[in-house]
Structure formats: C-alpha cells, structure tokens
Amino acid sequence: MTRKATSRAILAHFTTPRLSIAQRFAAGKALREQFPREAHSWLPPAPYDRDPIAVLKAQAATRLKQLVPVRHARMQESPFAFLRGAAAIMAGDLVATPHSGLMVQACGDMHVANIGLYASAERNLVLAINDFDETHLGPWEWDLKRLAASALVAAEYLGADAARQREAARMIATGYRTKLREYGKMGFMRVWYDHIEQASVLDAFSVDAHRRVKATFAKARGRNHLQVLGKMTDLVDDQHRIRELHPFVIRETHTEDGEAVYEVLDELLEAYLASLPEDRRILLRRYRVVDVARKVVGVGSVGTRCWVILLTGADDDDPLFLQVKEAQPSVLAPYFTSEDDSGNQGRRVVRGQRMIQGSPDIFLGWCDLRGRHFYVRQLRDMKGGIDITPGMVKPRHFVEYCQLCGWALALAHAKSGDAAQIAGYLGKSEVMDEAIADFAVAYGQRTREDHALLLAAIARGELPVASEAR
User: Which DSSP string do the residues of 141-183 spell out, in sequence order?
Assistant: First the structure.
C-alpha cells in the first residue's frame, strides 16, 4: 500500500460514522438473547483428564529450578494462596464457560490481591489493578469471574461464613456492573482520565474502618525509595549494598547461563533505555548503578527471573530501585489471538499496563536479552493495599472493599473495551450479580479441591517444596 493510500485509510477510519451511546447499549442488551446472563452461573464439570498438578509442572519447566519449590511452598499455604498462583489452571477452566464475545485488554490474573494503591505520575495515591504479567486480549467475563472467585476464597481465608463469602463475590459483580454503566455513558476522554482517589476509597468503608484505611494510605506514602534503601540495604565501606536473604534475595556474580552479571546488565540496560521516551532516558542516565541482586517475587511469578537494581542520583540519599522482571507468554495466549503474541512479552506487559492502569510508572519499559523478555519498573514506589490476612481485616470490611475491586476492574475494562456495550449486556438488575456469585461459589469449591490435590502431590514427593516460603 502506498503512503497516500495509507493516509486515506487512516482518514477513513476517523471519518467512519460511529454508533451512538444508546445504540451501543442496545447492541449489548441484544446479546443476552444469544448469551443469557443466567448462564454465567454455570461451571462445567471438570473433564476426566483435567490435571492441575500437570499445569504447575509444565510452568516449572520454564522457570529457575532452584526457585520452583518456593512457589509450591507459597501455594500450599491456603486455597487463597493456591488460587493466586493458579491463573493458568483457571484459564483452562474458563475456556468451557460462556462469554458474550465482547473483548477487552484483560488483566489475565485478576484477583483481590492484585488490586492496590500506587502513586500516579502526579504523586497522588490511587487504587487500581497493579499486576499485569498475564495481560492479554480476552473476554471481560474471565477477569470478572476470576476476581469474584478470589473474593469468595479470600473471604473464607479471613474467617467469613458462607453467606458473607458469597456476598463478597456478589459485591465484586455489583461494583463492576454499576460503574460500567456510568462509564458507558461518559465520553472516552473522561473515562481515560478517571481514577479511584483516596476519598473514594475511604467512602467505601464503614466509619469504624477509617482509621485502619488511613493507616494504609500513610504506609503506602512511606514506601518510597528512601524507605526501601533502609529496609533492603546495608552500608558496606560507606556504600549501600542490597542485603541478601537466602533464597529470596541473592547477590550473584554470574547468571544461570554462566555469564557475568554486570556484562549482562550492561546489555539489558541499553535495550531497556531504548524502550523509554527520550525525556525518561535523559532522567535515568543521571543515575549510576550501585548494586544488583536476584529477588523472588509474588506467588504466581515465583521462579521467573527477576532482579533488583539499586541506583543513586544526586547523592546517596537519592536512591532509585528498579525491578527487572521476566515476562513469559500470557496464560490467555493459548485461547485468544493478540498482536502481542509474536513480539516481546515485556512489551506486551507494558502496553497492557499503560492501556488499563491509567497512571503507570514513569520508568516502565521493556527489553529483550538473549531471547528472554523482560519488563522494568520502579520497586515499591508508594505501593500498598489492604492486608488480606486473618486478623488484619474484618470480613465485613473486606466485603465493602470488594465493591471497590469491582470498580477498579470496571475502570480498566472501560479504558480498553466498549463500556456501553458491556453495560448494556449487564443491565440494571442484579441478574448478573447473582450469576457471578453462584459461579464463585462453585469455583471456590473447585479451588479447595485443587488445593487438596496440591497438598497430596507434595506429600507424595511429586512436587518439591521449600522449607521456607517467605
């Protein structure tokens, strides 16, 4: 195609008439005839050859062998911990469930622990999705069902009774549906710039929870690079060095391939800098590398390659911590085709985060190193969130939080998908809310059964497990 023809094609795109908001709502509503909302309550019976342990083994094959036992140790702690690491297992289950065909930039690993506070570029705390390793084109229903199931399983972990567990899942769907309806009526730019600010987070909770919520805000604000410097480093010969904590934080002189770490780091940083806008490159080049160490992160990500780099700027009290994390193909990639599938998986993560998070890290970038893909971001830059640990949050306050989680997912999907069509499909009634809650109840039971299979495999010696997981 000639340049002139290409220009005409672009102009044709921008001049093609669009459906009105009302028409898009109606188009979404019409989909109910083909895909009834009540059908979303259904979890198909597990096929005879379903094997969640085999999925974990297959994932272990691409990860650092010495860290795989840590992943299994973390997943064995509870059904909730298992669910957090079982995105690939759940994707295989969701493929048999109905969906409307309306696609979004899905998170791919949507659960309540992957929503939290972070600092916008303007240094304001906002609530949003904060993990994008599995982001990919996918149906909005998959994210919603995984998030609702995680809410139910987390509520059980917190000691909630069955009724409150179901209510946690239902509040996910309610928050999602009501906010999608608002976003469907907004202009595209209003949706793009919208965010969940601190006041909105506080308003979602009962008054008796406000003190603890405010403390969470304060803790997140304190998690800056200076705080990390004090927590993660020691002063050695008047120079800060990352503190080792075997096997979770380790300083290595060579990679698993036998290459010198600093030679690899030089190549990695050069490729990463090329992915940044020019102004960010200029800013980052003012810093110098002081130390680097390998770090174990997350639950689902354990075993993937991850490094922490300590840099300093104007002086030793001007630290910058970067996290370099390996990106492997999304768990959604086997089921849906995306333009990102054949490219750099780190770029996929960065592109997805920029599309659905709203105010991403200014140093967010990616690189390719010897055939492995990575993305780079700041470490713990005013990041925080609700502590989903028994005794740390009351079950009724967790249920209130779940509606916020539904809102966060709605905002992410509204940025990348057709909010009006999705909202039209969801409707004004609670039909979808109840269906999603029923699905979550069923998937909660499956998660408990899968967790029991994991414990049995560990007991048989089939899966290696570390003696320490944290």
Answer: HHHHHHHHHHHHHHHHHTT--HHHHHHHHHHHHHHHHHHHHHH
